[in-house]
Amino acid sequence: MAYKITLLPGDGIGPEVTEQAVLVLKAVSEKYGFNLEFNTALIGGIAIDETGSPLPNETVELCKNSDGVILGAVGGPKWDSLPGDQKPEKGLLGIRTALELFANLRPAIVHTPLRAASPLKDEILGDGLDIMIVRELTGGIYFGDRGREGDSAYDTERYSLAEVERIGRVAFELATKRGGNLCSVDKANVLESSRLWREVMIKLSSEYPAVNLSHMYVDNAAMQLVRAPRQFDVIVTSNIFGDILSDEASQITGSIGMLPSASLGAGKLGLYEPIHGSAPDIAGKGQANPIAAILSTAMMLRYSFNLPDAALSIESAVAKALESGMRTADIAENGAPSVSTAEMGRAIAEFV
Ligand code: IPM
Ligand code: MN
């Protein structure tokens, strides 16, 4: 039996980092003796160029028939002037919806050898940071009613009880396995949808007695993340708040080029992608950091394939590459030498 993986390299640096992720996956599959079957499909700008649609039906079908999906990145200046519903980003939003991937896990971890890259002072960072942001991914203002009326425009934040409950369960389960602390982030002092969100989280907490649930307004959470980030273990929040807070959290770890993500649904199938975008300014130059893409494959092994040892072996190979001093340009200290995308990928594959 082979695990079927659909690759969606996409745009900009997407193909470069995906190539290295595949290299590392092949190394780990040899080490642990499991088989992988790769298929590649179009998404984003390149899909628009080749088929006229950012998410061709073929791509959706291939993804649905696979065990895991690896995405590079979508978007770029070439497609920026297209109308909203035809942009490359629409392909990404569309595949999340089509696969019903409502739970987006974004770990923000400080890798010890990169501590100096964090803009936060040592006394704030302490000895490391490990936050898991659980972002609702298929609801809220991203998908609510929107439009134009006369000279106004509107977007709607709307959540059903069932939508909040299912993302809440993912977060409570994760908090149970981690440090037992769950902070639900909302804007319940203003938004009705946040008041529903909070009610549901409180109701759910009675089923998870081992988890300590707290609530925080999103403006305060944005501040607390840079003031005292170590107070957080698991954060659960809405689609748009999670989008914003995860970018903020990524920066306190030092580099957005390091952070992976997993988008999960009710079943085993998941979509795994780096948090960073397509970085058109460095695309094709071999400068991109492939670590976020590589760590995303570790999340796939853990969450979709239930191969925790293989996942750990990728994570420790990344740690070894960093400890050995290898740096891509984004994480190299000022003026220090850096390695290319492919050199970093090869080194991590060899450490595996
Ligand atoms: C992300 C991205 C996407 C989002 C964009 C590209 C649609 O910013 O994955 O965080 O807003 O969800
Ligand atoms: Mn984002």
Question: Could you explain the architecture of this structure?
Answer:
There is one protein chain. This protein is of the alpha/beta class and 352 residues long. Helix content is 41%, strand content 20%. The protein has helices at 14-32, 45-51, 57-64, 88-98, 122-125, 161-177, 192-205, 218-227, 239-252, 291-303, 308-323, 341-351; strands spanning 2-10, 35-40, 68-73, 103-109, 130-136, 146-149, 152-155, 181-186, 212-217, 234-237, 260-264, 270-274. The strands form 2 sheets. Strands 2-1-3-12-11-4-5-10-8-9 form a 10-stranded mixed beta sheet, sandwiched between helices. Strand 1 (2-10), helix 1 and strand 2 form a beta-alpha-beta unit. Helix 1 crosses helix 10 and helix 1 runs parallel beside helix 12. Residues 89, 92-93, 243 line the site of 3-isopropylmalic acid. Residues 243, 247 line the site of manganese (II) ion.
What low-confidence regions span 5 or more consecutive residues with pLDDT below 50? none
- So what's the oligomer here? single chain
Shape: globular
Radius of gyration: 20 Å
The chain-level mean pLDDT equals: 96
- If helices are DSSP runs of H or I spanning 4 or more residues, what is the number of helices? 12
User: What level of helicity do the residues show?
Assistant: 40-55%
Reported for the largest beta sheet, the result is: 10 strands, mixed
Strand order of the largest sheet: 2-1-3-12-11-4-5-10-8-9
Q: Which ligands occur here?
A: 3-isopropylmalic acid, manganese (II) ion
Amino- and carboxy-terminal Cα gap: 22 Å
Q: What is the structural class?
A: alpha/beta
Strand content: 15-25%
**Helix and strand sequence:** EHEHHEHEHEEEHEHEHEHEEHHH
DSSP, total strands: 12
